[in-house]
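Hallway conversation turned thread

IA: we were arguing at lunch whether anyone had actually written out M14 family metallocarboxypeptidase end to end. Turns out nobody had. So, for the record, here is the sequence (305 residues) and right after it the structure tokens. Reply here if something looks off.
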Amino acid sequence: MTSPAPYPVGTPGQPWGEAEVAQWRARQMRQRRYDTLVEPRIKALADHFTLIPYGALDYAGEHYPLYALANGPVDPALPSALVTGGVHGYETSGVMGALEFLETRAADYAGRVNLLIAPCVSPWGFERINRWNYDAIDPNRNFREDSPAGECRALLALVAGHGAPFLLHIDLHETTDSDEDEFRPALAARDGKAYEPDTIPDGFYLVDDTKNLQPAFQAAIIAAVERVTHIAPADAQGQIIGSPVLQRGVIAYPLASAGLCAGLTGARFTTTTEVYPDSPSATPEECNAAQVAAVCAALDFALGA
């Protein structure tokens, strides 16, 4: 078996320093625009939702305002739900699915739930089609109070200022072929570890919380999404991306202790969606629709619980 070529940044076996991060950063070219593809759609929704600027990121002269949308002032008599997209900026349907939910379905929940939606948590990563932020930090491992990632600190402050506990948090993600081609090799190189090849699951799956398993909730989302796109099967070891499959299309991580976005609220119902956009049978529209279906199913289940 041929060993994979060394990652083009750094020295194998040695963690990166500032020089290697700078070399990695120089390779990240802007490939799309947050201010033309995302910001205008967010601002257009201000006619129907409350627009909440919750901070900004400034990276080497590039300014990224951060926005959330709410369906009105917090009503203490109603439960609250958080929807996040674009924590990994390259995962396109996380961003577009959150926006499509706002544009097409969010109004259906008026008077039933306090919605708070952050469609694009990591705009620098969105533009570079990258998993990490400007500092080669993965936001989705750093949701803690002392986070080194500005994306995480801003979202934590937004959630803390909401003023009511959350019943639900659904975090919209993708697992892509580039995870294996680029991002996992980059992670191993950054940390000075050997890269161990893995496989990419073919289909949609969910990540539950090992500290708060909600199997019926996860199953309801899988059932809804299956009407839109296919569900990832377990591999020969009964796993998906190295984790045991607990039920069809569902694995689990310790969300809060791992610093994952879906663990930041302590909500009763939490999940991370993982859409597979590289399937030959999937289209961008199908991937966005799968995210919308997941959000609606999550809300319907939680509100009926």
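OS: looked through it. The longest strand covers residues 50-59.
IA: good, adding that to the notes. The mean pLDDT is 97.
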